[in-house]
Design goal:
Layout: E1 8-17, E2 20-30, E3 35-39, H1 46-53, E4 61-66, E5 70-71, H2 77-82, E6 85-87, H3 100-108, H4 116-121, H5 124-143, H6 159-171, E7 177-181, H7 189-204, E8 208-212, H8 216-222, E9 225-230, E10 233-238, H9 240-244, H10 247-254
Helix pairs in contact: 3-5, 3-6
This protein binds adenosine-5'-diphosphate and magnesium ion.
C-alpha cells in the first residue's frame, strides 16, 4: 500500500474568498485503497477542500490531479463525478419526495444511456436497462443496509438512514474516490457503529475514501492516514495515533 502512487494529489491549493484564504496553499496526497481523514477545527477549510475537489469551487491557485495525470481543477462537478469522484454533503441533500430506491436510481442514470428513441418507444433495450438499473440500485441499497426500506420516501427515513442513503446514491456513480463530509454528525451511537462498518466495507471494496469527521473515535477507528487543517493550512499529517498525540493538533483544537 505505502509504495503505491497517490490516487489523488492536491498541489498548493489556494481558495480565496474576498480577503479570506479558506485554503492557503494546501498539499494533499491520498493513497489508493485507504481511508484518508481530513480533520481540523470549525472553519479550518475542510468543506472548502471538498468543494475544490468536486468542482463546486474553482481554486484560486493550485492543481488537483486524479490517478497521476487527470487534472480535475477547472472542470465542472458533473465532469468530475464522471471521472470517478463522488461525494456526500455536510447537510443531507436527498430528493425528499422520492423513495430510497428512486434516489439511488438517479445516481445510476448516467451508467445506462439508452438513446432518446429507446426511451420514447420503450424498446426491449430500454426495458432491459431499466431492469438492470433497478437490480443494481437494490444491490447498492443492500450494501448500505437499506434494502428493506427501498420503497420509503427519503423524507420519512430516520436521519441515520438518510445519511446511509446519501452514501448509497454516491456509490451509484461507481466512484474510485468517495468524499464524505461529516457523515456521523448528528447520529446516535448505534447509527455511528453501522456507518463505520459500511465505510470500512467501502474501502475493502477498493474505493478510496476521504473522510471529514469531528468524532475522533470514528477517525481513529477508520483512518489509515490523517491530514489536519487549521486556518487553511495543513499543520500535521500522519497515522491516526501519531496525529492524536501531536502538540500542534492538540493546540489547534483547544484554541477553537
Ligand atoms: P470547515 O468545513 O473546516 O468547518 P469551511 O471550509 O466550511 O470550514 O470554511 C472555511 C472558511 O472559509 C470559513 O472561515 C468560512 O466562513 C469560509 N467560507 C467557506 N465557504 C465560503 C464562501 N462560499 N464564501 C465566503 N467564505 C466562505
Ligand atoms: Mg465543514
Amino acid at each position: 500500500r505505502s509504495g503505491a502512487d497517490p490516487l489523488l494529489r492536491v498541489e498548493g491549493a489556494v481558495m480565496q474568498f474576498g480577503g479570506l484564504k479558506a485554503l492557503a496553499g494546501v498539499d494533499l496526497s491520498v493513497r489508493p485503497g485507504t481511508i484518508h481523514g481530513l480533520i481540523g477545527p470549525n472553519g479550518s477549510g475542510k468543506s472548502t477542500m471538498m468543494n475544490v475537489l468536486t468542482g463546486i469551487y474553482r481554486p484560486t491557485e493550485g492543481a488537483v490531479v486524479l490517478a497521476g495525470s487527470n487534472r480535475l481543477d477547472g472542470r465542472t462537478p458533473s465532469e468530475i463525478a464522471l471521472a470517478g469522484v463522488a461525494r456526500t454533503f455536510q447537510n443531507v441533500q436527498l430528493f425528499r419526495e422520492m423513495t430510497a430506491l428512486e434516489n439511488v436510481l438517479v445516481g445510476l442514470h448516467h451508467a445506462f444511456r439508452g438513446t432518446l428513441f429507446d426511451a420514447i418507444l420503450g424498446t426491449p433495450r430500454r426495458r432491459r436497462e431499466e431492469r438492470e438499473a433497478r437490480a443494481r440500485a437494490m444491490a447498492i441499497l443492500d450494501f448500505v443496509g437499506l434494502s428493506n426500506l427501498a420503497q420509503v420516501e427519503a423524507r420519512n427515513l430516520p436521519y441515520g438512514k438518510q445519511r446511509l442513503l446519501e452514501i448509497g446514491r454516491a456509490l451509484a456513480l461507481d466512484p474510485v474516490l468517495l468524499l464524505l463530509d461529516e457523515p456521523a454528525a448528528g447520529l446516535t451511537a448505534p447509527d455511528i457503529a453501522e456507518l463505520t462498518a459500511i465505510i470500512r466495507k467501502i474501502r475493502d471494496a477498493g474505493i478510496t475514501v476521504i473522510l471529514i469527521e469531528h468524532h475522533m473515535d470514528v477517525v481513529m477507528g477508520l483512518c489509515d492516514r490523517v491530514s489536519v487543517l487549521d486556518f487553511g493550512h495543513k499543520i500535521a499529517e500522519g497515522g491516526a495515533r501519531e496525529i492524536q498525540a501531536d502538540p500542534k493538533v492538540i493546540e489547534a483544537y483547544l484554541g477553537s
